[in-house]
């Protein structure tokens, strides 16, 4: 059974609830009663409960706030930073490539000079002495080719040792593998070059 208040469509239950307020709550309720001129505590408590329940309902049905969009200015600054870093990396890569190209050209020049020097020594010093000792032109050419083969074997062996050391120092890097392959190719012996010169001139 419920009991209706005068002039109200809401009914009261017969269940009497005993509430032990906290000290601060009781103090605030007493202050509200004095400010509003109310003499009964129960109606005020019911009003406060209504307000609290209404606030809870509004909180439960309030839609979730959408995520705040990232400011456009922050995106622009991030893109500019990425662009700057990429341009620096490209610049360093180009500089490294140019340095490697210069080093390769210098190495090629050194190889050419070394080969020319060797050919001159054989032509003007070694070959005449070998002829004086009774060596034929074919035997002298064969000795020249044998020394060339020994020199190539030494160069290939040294290049292979350098390659293994580089791989051991940075086994996870793929760029070193490409560089080492280029370095190995620079030691490739052009057989047509030797045949073109025909060995030392006798």
Shape call: rod-shaped
| Contiguous runs where pLDDT drops below 50 for at least 5 residues | 191-198
Main structural class: mainly alpha
State the strand order across the main sheet. Answer: 1-2
Listing every helix as H and every strand as E from the N terminus to the C terminus, the arrangement reads EEHHHHHH
Please give the largest β-sheet: 2 strands, antiparallel
Q: What is the terminal separation in angstroms?
A: 134 Å
Strand content: under 5%
- Number of H- or I-type helical stretches: 6
What is the typical, i.e. mean, pLDDT?
Answer: 75
Number of strands: 2
Helix content: over 70%
Radius of gyration: 49 Å
Description:
The protein has 202 residues and is an all-alpha fold. Among the domains are: 13-61; 106-197, no CATH class. It has six helices and two strands. The chain has a two-stranded antiparallel sheet. It is rod-shaped. The model is unreliable at 191-198 (pLDDT under 50).
């Amino acid at each position: 059974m419920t009991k209706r208040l005068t002039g109200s469509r809401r009914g009261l239950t017969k269940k009497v609830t005993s509430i032990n307020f906290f000290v601060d709550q009781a103090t605030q309720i007493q202050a509200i009663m004095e400010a509003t001129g109310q003499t009964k505590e129960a109606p005020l408590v019911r009003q406060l409960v209504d307000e609290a329940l209404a606030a809870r309902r509004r909180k439960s049905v309030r839609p979730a706030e959408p995520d705040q969009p990232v400011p456009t200015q922050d995106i622009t600054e991030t893109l500019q930073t990425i662009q700057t870093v990429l341009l620096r990396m490209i610049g360093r890569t180009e500089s490294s490539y140019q340095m490697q190209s210069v080093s390769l050209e210098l190495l090629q020049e050194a190889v050419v000079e070394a080969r020319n020097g060797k050919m001159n020594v054989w032509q003007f010093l070694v070959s005449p002495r070998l002829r004086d000792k009774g060596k034929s032109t074919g035997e002298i050419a064969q000795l020249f080719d044998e020394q060339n083969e020994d020199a190539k074997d030494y160069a290939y062996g040294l290049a292979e040792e350098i390659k293994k050391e580089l791989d051991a120092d940075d086994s996870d890097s793929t760029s070193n593998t490409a560089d080492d392959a280029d370095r190995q190719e620079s030691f490739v012996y052009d057989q047509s070059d030797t045949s073109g010169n025909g060995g030392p001139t006798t």
